[in-house]
Amino acid sequence: MFADPDRDLGAVMEDVARLSVRLVFQTALEAEVAEFLGRDRYARGERVREGSRNGYSDITVKTTAGPVALRRPKVRGTLETFSSRLLGKGVTRTNALEALVISGWVRGLSMRDIEAALAETLGPDATVSKSTVSRICTAIHAQFDAFRARDLSGVDLAYLYVDASHFRYHHAADAEPVLVAYGITTDGDPLLLAVDGAAGESHDACAAFLRDLRARGLRPPLLVVSDGGPGLVGALDRVFGASRRQRCLVHRSWNALAKVSKADAAEVKADFWAMFDDVDADPGEPAVAQARRHADEFAGKWRARYPGAVACVTGDLDHLVAYLHFPRAHWRRIRHTNLIERTFGETRRRVKVIGRLPGERSCLSLVWAVLDRATGGWRGVTVTPADARLLQQLRAQLESARPAVSDDGQPDVEHPADTQAAARSDRPAAGGDVEPTVLPERPADAGDAAEMTAA
Q: What are the angstrom distances between the C-alpha of 348 and each of 171, 181, 237?
């Protein structure tokens, strides 16, 4: 192939890639049959099971590099049916090609558009039929519906994160929120819990989203983490009133820096994060008390010049230090919603290219597809025996402090003071946190960097 001077090097490399894929796949298929029969080809002697090879059947696997021809081994005389773990039953396309079909579908392309695009890019032999595209799209609908309805009674959450991002469904229409909930279990595993649309980030819309989690069996988490949107804050306090609530420190830093001049922003930012980073006391009240002393020092230094920035800290300090009650190794992971924010950023970049989404169904499917694939790279937290004991103690405190419930099974306790305080402190952000144009967040340390890149 390389000796032909008339061939383009790129085309030669594509041929090499396909041959390499064919070699690896074929070798793996032969190894699967040898494992199934318990002996290599032409080997004699003791047999693990009855049966023998029975030739091959030709199969073409459609990949993003083009069609790859393989020979699927057949067996006969066995009591069990041989099924390849590599190809499975009826597999004739790779996940990458299927991902392209899914990607085109959630972008609003018709089945004909998808088929034409694959044929133009990969050749007529590599395209997929309309019926295949339809089955893929139907499967995504079914997977998303199953995700939204699955039982959560077996999930024991330590930390619940709730956030929203806005997407425009139609040209010239207002952007509408998509609410997302994900969590980390008491075993330290990350888990995507819910994706749903809402008419707005009002209290009622957010409460309905959270009540759906409870209706599907989710127990109250030990800690909920969110931004300061008053609707979301009020809903969390009502539905998960016994859980501790942590306000995202990154969002709160944006609020504080928005009230500071550019000349002092770097110093104020450094002092803001020092309040929370320079805590070496034991988790619980000792750590909270130390953070409060740091907050007093921050207020004493900056109140005269920036009373608004100081109020952002002192006005909601209880919810800025809630994470300090939990294991120290988890602190940098449970004091902000950066992980979901970065994944939302990727989704928004894709939507920006599209320009608009055909409707709520396509939007939710796209967000869910992005998040579902991102969860494979999300890191959880390490839970040591000492951490597990602390989480168990906090669970016992939560169970003993659960509020009374009304006839509809929902907590009968509202927290108007917290909601009003959130609304007052966030008023410049039109109902939520605001991101300033200068120094939006602190430099990521090693722990946060690993988390952010995972998304």
A: 16, 17, 29
Beta bridge partners of 427: none
The rounded mean pLDDT for the chain is 75
Q: What is d(CA 150, CA 153) in angstroms, rounded to the nearest whole number?
A: 9
316-342: per-residue pLDDT in tens?
Answer: 999 999 999 999 999 999 999 887 766
What the block records as the tokens of 420 is 């009003």
The per-residue DSSP string of 300-315 comes to HHHTTT-HHHHHHHHT
How far is residue 76's CA from residue 307's CA, in Å, rounded to a whole number?
A: 82
CB 403, CB 411: distance < 8 Å? yes
What separation in angstroms does the CA of 93 have from each of 4, 17, 64, 425?
A: 31, 16, 9, 53
Residue 58 has pLDDT above 90, yes or no: no
Helix axes 360-374, 130-149, angle to 10 degrees: 80
DSSP string, 338-390: HHHHHHHHHHHHHHHHH-S-S-HHHHHHHHHHHHHHHGGG-------HHHHHH
- For residue 168, the number of C-alpha atoms closer than 13 Å in the C-beta half-sphere is 13
Classified as helix, coil or strand, 178 is strand
CB neighbours of residue 402 within 10 Å: 14
**Could you tell me the residue ranges of all domains in the chain?**
9-92, 97-148, 154-454
Which of the four pLDDT bands, split at 50, 70 and 90, describes residue 73?
confident
Which tens digits make up the pLDDT trace of 140-156? 777 888 899 999 999 99
Own/partner long-range contacts of 348-352 (Cβ < 8 Å, ≥24 apart): 348/165, 348/167, 351/167, 351/168
Structure token pair of residue 174: 């207002």
Q: Is the separation of the CB atoms in 386 and 406 below 8 Å?
A: no
3-state secondary structure of 147: helix
Cα(294)–Cα(277) distance, integer angstroms: 10
- pTM here is 0.66
Sheet hosting strand 190-197, strand order edge to edge = 190-197, 176-185, 157-167, 223-226, 244-247
Among 185-199, 345-359, 381-395, 420-434, top mean pLDDT goes to: 381-395
Task: State how far the Cα of 396 lies from the Cα of 279, in Å rounded to an integer.
Answer: 25
> Which pLDDT does position 415 carry in this prediction?
41
d(CA 409, CA 396): 21
Angle at 263 between CA 259 and CA 268, to 5 degrees: 55
Q: Which residues of 137-166 are buried (b: 16+ CB within 10 A; e: fewer)?
A: beebeeebeeeeeeebeebebbbbbbbbbe
CA atoms of 113 and 137, how far apart (whole Å): 14
